[in-house]
Amino acid sequence: MDTSDGRAGNDPLAASFNDLGTESDAGQGWEMDRSLVGQFLARSPVGMAVMSPELRYIWINDALERLGGVPREERLGKRLGDVLPKLDAEQIEATMRRVLETGEPAVDIEYRGRTQADPEREHAYSTSFFRLDDTLGRVRGVCYMVIDVTDRWRAGSRLALLNEVGARTGKSLNVMHIAQALAESCVPHLADFVAVDLLDPVLLGEAPRPGPLPSTQQLRRAGLRSATSDLREPIAETGQSVVFPPSSPGERCLLDGSSYLRPVLDDEAGGWLAAEPHRAEDNQGLGRCSLMLVRVGARGNALGVATFVRRESRGTFEQADLLLAEDLVARAAVNIDNARQFTREHNTALALQRFLLPQRVTTQSTLEVESRYLPAAASDGVGGDWFDVIRLSGARVALVVGDVVGHGIRAAASMGRLRTAVRTLADLDLPPEELLAHLDDQLLGLIGEDVAHHDSPASAVLGATCLYAVYDPATRRCTMARAGHPPPALVSPDGSVAFLDLPPGPPLGLGGLPFESADFEVAEGSVLALYTNGLIEARERDVEVGMSRLGTALASPGRPLDELCASVLTHMLNGPPDDDVALLLARTHALGSDQVASWDLPSDPAVVAEARARTLRCLDAWGLSGLASTMELIVSELVTNAIRYASGPIRLRLIRQDVLICEVFDTSNTSPRLRHARTTDEGGRGLFLVAQLAKRWGTRYTAEGKIIWAEHDPSEAPMM
């Protein structure tokens, strides 16, 4: 037969059909001659070819000729790479050699490339290879059959890209990170250059403006990715402002939501670029290119615009590409809007928390204080950590640090309520263990209210931890109690660090369990470190390791507290903390002997005059004789009150600080009561006079009795 056209003849493929039976088992025979076999192979809809053992074409059929776009006469005698240079000939020939050597067929091998039949588009092909042997077992060549599976490949690629965008943009709750993930996922799979520009309010977590957007909206570049480094500098880097000119496709896309597709962005099609010379220069860097613009929108609100650019050499964008881009952007837009809402809630909770925390910690003459607060990473939400420094009577100072379980606005609000409760209870001058017991009752009430007013108990406050310490500069002692909170650290003047052995106590919110306090002597110049668990706990280390590292970081005697705070945080944290961090450092200073005067007095009315006299001599020695008349009256009334309503010895103590403090100790537990005496009453005006003369006054109880105290501001003129 004639084999000059490469269709059929004395070739290995046709010869392999020679042994077909000439008669069926049913007796209805049919004869298939080699001409019929040749016609069948030549006209098969599946592309077929036979390669010699040297991998040169010796036969192809019509389908393969159409599939590759190379005439038959230009193929015969040549190798694959000679006629189709844009296919991966090296990989395909390696497969054919393996089939020739082993005789094992290779089925459904997929490869991609471009052919002369459609040089502007990349196609995918599924190819199967098998070896041809003659009747003597000699290798005659290799045959391959190929079909175009571009549609299947593109569908799979688009599905994979959709899944990738969904997965990458769903990992973060940061608007900028999501926009960047969208850009990175689409380059180079869909485009050579992608920019995601979002409205400024979106980046701040604000809700999009309802209704139609006004023209000339200002956006900000949130995501940017380029396939190659030879592209010109974009008109805006990440974080910079972007404005689409009036009537441009970008503005129309943003305002009415219509996507824009320009297969070839030439001078005529891109006339709007004349209003943006910088953008025109940017596109010149890409050469002739294809452009798509898709609005970023979710839940009916416009969030921004995504720009896709592809070099013409890679093929122009088609309608299918635009549909894919719209699907990709829509999937990312939902995550962007979720992140926007989270940002709004996070910012609200953070603002609430900062408002509820002390705006500034006031340093006392007896206590130098420095604090730091670091919120957790945004993805974890704002926590309920808090700290406080509370001035108490008798020159004492309370240090508080606590942590509400959970994150978010509810935790921040609960923190504010607990901080207010602590301040209220501190004004009652309760011992630390009693204060925590009352705070536990308060929190149980809050938990009950939350459970009653919320459908889900999971949204209610679950509990809290707290450490409450009271430092007395007159005795240089500190009394502490804690409720499930990490123990405080004490840095001695020599730099040694010890974590105080303080009974742990149950967390707040359990109810019915007692709290215990402990008393420690604190040397002059020591540093007390109170903190929340976010400082010592992390995903990669346990609490013991964290406490050890904290001890090392604190061992810096004499260092300024602001520097020590910064150093501790740098040493303990390698980035945004996993949980909120509150750190409170306090350097102690004791009251000197020239600041305190104390006298033990008998419970005798005659001693009132002696108390006044000693007070006047003390004030004169302190250079405060101008306060003599006021303090003389306060001392007289407080001592008289103690003699009248108490029994046992009395102690009078004067403390000179930024205010002048008068304290009278007695052994009675009877609470004094301020009342307004009638004009006919002979007594009952003592505490009323004290309240009028003093800046503030009150009562606190001790194990031996009580103390009635009054403070007077030396800068204020006597109110006589």
CATH superfamily of the largest domain, called what?
PPM-type phosphatase domain
Number of strand elements: 26
Poorly predicted runs are 6-12, 14-32, 677-683
In one word, what is the shape?
Answer: elongated
Oligomeric description of these chains = single chain
Q: Overall pLDDT, averaged?
A: 84
Number of domains: 4
- Rg over CA atoms, rounded to whole Å, is 43 Å
Binned strand content: 25-35%
CATH topology of the largest domain: Phosphatase 2c, domain 1
Q: Which CATH class of the largest domain?
A: Alpha Beta
The share of residues in helices is 25-40%
Strand order of the largest sheet: 8-7-6-11-10-9
Terminal CA distance: 136 Å
Describe this structure in words.
This protein folds into 4 domains: 12-148, PAS domain (Beta-Lactamase, 2-Layer Sandwich), CATH 3.30.450.20; 154-347, Beta-Lactamase (2-Layer Sandwich); 358-588, Phosphatase 2c, domain 1, CATH 3.60.40.10; 593-712, Histidine kinase-like ATPase, C-terminal domain (Heat Shock Protein 90, 2-Layer Sandwich). 33% of the residues lie in helices and 25% in strands. The chain contains 18 helices and 26 strands. α6 (150-169) packs antiparallel against α7, α16 packs antiparallel against α17 (628-645) and α17 packs antiparallel against α18.
